[in-house]
Amino acid sequence: MAGSQRNPSPVSFLTDPILAARLEAIKQLAGGFSDRVAVVDRDFNVIYANESAWSEDTSTSSGRSAKCYQAFAHRSDPCGTCPATKMYESPEVRSVACASGGDGTACGMHQAFPLVSSRGEVESVLVLFKALPKAEMQTSGAHAVVKQEAKLGELIGSSAPMREVLDMIRLVADSCATVLIQGESGTGKELVAKTIHQTSYRRDKPFVVVDCGSLPETLLESELFGHVKGSFTGAHATKRGLFEEADGGTIFLDEIADTTATFQAKLLRVLQEGEIKRVGGNQPIKIDVRVVSATNRDLVELVRAKSFRQDLYYRLAVLPLSLPPLRHRREDIPLLVQHFVSASCKRHRQPVRQVSPDVMQALTQATWPGNVRELQHYIERAVVTTTGPTLNCKDIVAMGSKPVEHDLRTVARGATRQAEHARILQALQQTGNNRAKAAKLLKISRASLYNKLRAYGVAEA
Length: 461
Hints:
Layout: H1 17-30, E1 36-41, E2 46-49, H2 68-71, H3 86-89, E3 96-97, E4 111-116, E5 122-129, E6 135-140, E7 143-148, E8 151-152, E9 155-156, H4 160-172, E10 179-182, H5 189-199, E11 207-211, H6 217-225, E12 226-227, E13 239-240, H7 242-245, E14 250-254, H8 261-273, E15 275-276, E16 285-286, E17 290-295, H9 299-304, H10 310-316, E18 319-322, H11 333-347, E19 354-355, H12 357-365, H13 371-385, E20 390-391, H14 393-398, H15 408-430, H16 435-442, H17 446-455
Parallel strand pairs: 10-17, 10-18, 11-14, 14-17, 19-20
Antiparallel strand pairs: 1-2, 1-5, 3-4, 4-5, 6-7, 8-9, 12-13, 15-16
Helix pairs in contact: 8-10, 11-13, 15-16, 16-17
């Protein structure tokens, strides 16, 4: 993984509690894996690699000490530019993936994730050298077709971003470490949390969901930690909290970014000590609960703005997982449409409906700002409000949906707007949300930048 810039004062896994916790979680996860897993630092030293990663012909395997290019690419010198180094140069990059072959992939790296220290810097990377996904070979004439796994529990997707998510879920499921799921509204964060639980050894224990954003602070504490009789007005009896109800299983804290600083401090203590205290009580209660949290907001930005505790963020994000929006995994839309049509027809006691090619094309090209949830509700509405064996474009127009334009000019204009919007957000992130510096970076006037921010609905900092 050549090409990274040396950090003048690297943080050690031995001295940094966050890095130590993440390394321990990775060791627990990867120990029995047949797939190759490794942790590599900025200087390309192999900090950890599971048994599968050490090939039989690796000369340094006996000492388990090597550079990554020696151990995994069998080279005496560093490789060419490695995609993994992007995470050192741009901390906002949350993962990189490699296709087989080409410069910088001699080691066989499939995907890499950043490991962040307690001071918020990327100090090393988790590397997955995963083989091709399980495939079903279907022969048609002289051609062989590889059908990759597209489902894990209730999660569906065969696109590259979703395969990365499914791979990560399989990797983290049996760990006891906390998982932070980040993604836009409607991307399926609760479903991912449920899949992590159902794939883990805790599957036979409770899975408890808490919407942190819907409860005031005092009620949230009582719900999570329980309370003793007489601790507040209306507390007529002692009540067990949801952490106790979830003992041995998983608790999912949704919209964790919407909690107060006081609650965050109490939750941090629960994660550190593995015990709770009921509201109004003094007796600590030991719990064994796997905590999975989620948010549709950028917690890193909230930490920088001092509206979310940095120490709690690192406790929650021992194993971070980012969900792609539906517009970044369009090739999954046909799979999702077929699944939702079948489920809706069954639920509403209708014969299975077919989806015409023009409808499938229109659905695939739509923007879906509400992501998978919006698509699911849209399909259900179409099934309920139309008749006939096939869903067609007339049905879509009849429901009042906006028809999809297919002319080249419209497509090009939409693609340009998406690319421009993404580049503006990237420039703002690179400049710490400084509008003047972002405008200079984009080579446009400040007035033009402000006009574009208003057009794209980007709020002022």
